[in-house]
Every structure is written in structure tokens, then in C-alpha cells.
Amino acid sequence: MRAYGFTAVGGPENETFLDVPVPTPGAGELLVRVRAAGVNPGDWRLREGAYGTAGPAVLGREVAGTVTAVGPEVTGFAVGDEVFGGCPGMVGGWAEQALVTASFAAHRPEAVTPEAAAVLPVAAGTAYDVLENLALPAGATLLVNGAGGGVGIPITQLARARGLKVVGVASPAKHDLVAGFGAIPVAYGEGVLDRVRAAAPDGVDAVFDLVGGDALSTVATLVADRSALLSVADRPLAHELGGRTVERDRSTAVLEKLADLVAAGRLDPYVTQVRPVDEAGEALAEVQEGHVVGKIVLVPNPSGAQA
Questions:
Q1: R_g of the chain computed on alpha carbons
Q2: Rounded to an integer, what distance in angstroms lies between the CA atom of residue 93 and that of residue 196?
Q3: Which residues of the chain have pLDDT under 70?
Q4: Residue of 191, 96, 210 lying closest to 145 (CA atoms)
Q5: Burial class of residue 290 in the structure, from the number of CB atoms within 10 Å of its CB (0-12 exposed, 13-18 middle, 19+ buried)
Q6: Does the domain at residues 2-119+269-299 carry the CATH identifier 3.90.180.10?
Q7: What is the pLDDT at residue 31?
Q8: How many Cβ atoms are within 10 Å of 32's Cβ, its own excluded?
Q9: Distance CA 199, CA 201 (A)
Q10: How far is CA 209 from CA 49, 120, 176, 194, 301, in A?
């Protein structure tokens, strides 16, 4: 079958369409005919070897689609089910068919489109887990460093639904977007601490970082209790500053909760681009450049179309 991935660790020059066999689902796995697949920063990081990958490998960490085969030791799913979930290891979802980990999969409600469901496992799932890790009470203030990105948008919505006040650090171009989802936007750069203190005069109870580097070091000073500092952008620095790594709950239960929120209109996955899989390379380049607003989804090419 046709899939998009990379031949060796490195840059975009190693990306290409691959001819790979249809995978066989192992224990605890589903085989899914892909209807939509998310694009994430983790995809280019995988290509660059961040997770110990040597290549070749198929990209794509999350999909929605139709179950075509069920592996051993799987219960609750059957051929023909419409599902969404996370892809295991290096058998990615930018393909005609993909493996999905059954324990991190859920049935897709009719009210949730494949495109919306396909972007829930990684970004929205991370956002949900961050809030579970922090366990902030209603009325507390959360600073989101990078509020205009793929994880920043869902965590703002989920935090507001829990009764939290959100201050979102974002580029000025994204301030209207951040405010539209219920956060108080402030700009990056010199003077950011003063701007945050003006937005949250009673202080910040927790910081969630999606930027890393100097931007993380700066906002970390806002919380005296560094156990309330979490980062997914710069884990080594977060640990050095006394913060924590996000503990992920990659489970069916979490995905079901997220899908229910989408179906109820309380969570907008904010898919802003739906592109044919033939444009996978261009889509990943946009994500790596860091200027994408919202989420990009890849869908199968129109019938008969190929690059």
C-alpha cells in the first residue's frame, strides 16, 4: 500500500512516499482504513530521530477510520466500527491503512467528523492530561505559554470549562484567537512578566509551557511551587527548573470524554486545514515552521488521484 514517511533520519529531504505492506494487527491492535490523520510536531521530531528511530518509517501518530481487522486480545471493537485513536510505534497513520492501539482508541460518535476525531489523541489528549496532572480547583489561574498552538487551543477550552482563569502567552497575531477561546492574551518577549502580572494580579497558580528555552525559564519564575510547572516543549529544562513531565493517560476513557465534549459543542478541535495525503510533505513543513494556526488534517486523495 501507499504511505508517506521517511527513508532515514534527517531532514525533509528524506521524506517520500513508500510502498509498504498492509500491516497485520498484533495483540491489542486494530487495523483501520484511514479516513483522516492528524499532523503534529512529533512527526518531524520522529523523522529527525528524537525517539530513536532509524527509518524507514511511516509518519502519523493519530487517525480516524474504519476497522478492517481486529488483533488478538482485543475486545469492544469489531470490523466495520468507526473509530479514532493513536498509532503504535513507527507504523504511522499517513497511509491507506494503519494500526491503532486498541487501548488508546474509541468509537467515533456520529456527531463528530473523522477530521475532528483524528486530532483528539495527541493535542487534545495532552491538554486533558495536563489538567488532570495539575488538578487545579475552580477559580485558579493557569498560564499557558504558547496558547495559540495545537495544544494551547484545546487546553484553554478545557481549562475554562473547569472554571479556571487562563492567561495565554501568544504572538500578537493570535491574540484575537486566544481571547475567543476565553483566555486573557499577553505577548511574548521583554516585559512578559509585567504583562502577566497585570492580567493576573492575584498571581499564577500553575504554568504549562509549549515553547521551551528562555521563554520557559522566564515564566517559570511566576510559580513558587515548581511542581505546578509542566512543559512538553523542553522537558530537560523543565526538570532543571524543578518542574514536571506530563504523565499521559493514553486510554479509551480519555478519548471518549474528549469526543463527548466535541459532540456537545464544548470543545472545538479547531481544524483549519484539510489536505489530501499527497500534500503531506507540505503540511509537515508548515507544522515544523511553527506558524500553523489550528490543526492540519490529511485525508485520502480523491478517488484515483496520486502524486
A1: 19
A2: 39
A3: 90, 303-307
A4: 210
A5: exposed
A6: yes
A7: 98
A8: 28
A9: 6
A10: 23, 19, 20, 18, 36
Q: Which amino acid is at 35?
A: R
CA distance 149 to 49: 23
One-letter-per-residue 3-state SS of 3-45: EEEECCCCCHHHEEEEECCCCCCCCCEEEEEEEEEECCHHHHH
Which tens digit of pLDDT belongs to each residue from 196-212? 999 999 999 999 999 99
Provide CB contacts within 8 A for 12, sequence distance 6+.
Answer: 44, 47, 281, 284, 285, 288
3-state secondary structure of 200: coil
Class of domain 123-240: alpha beta
Domain boundaries, the chain: 2-119+269-299, 123-240
pTM: 0.93
CA separation for the pair 35, 84 (Å, rounded): 10
Residue type, 281: G
Are the beta carbons of 263 and 111 closer than 8 angstroms?
Answer: yes
B/e letters for 91-115, b = 16+ CB within 10 Å, e = fewer, are bbbbbebbbbbbebbbbbbeebbbb
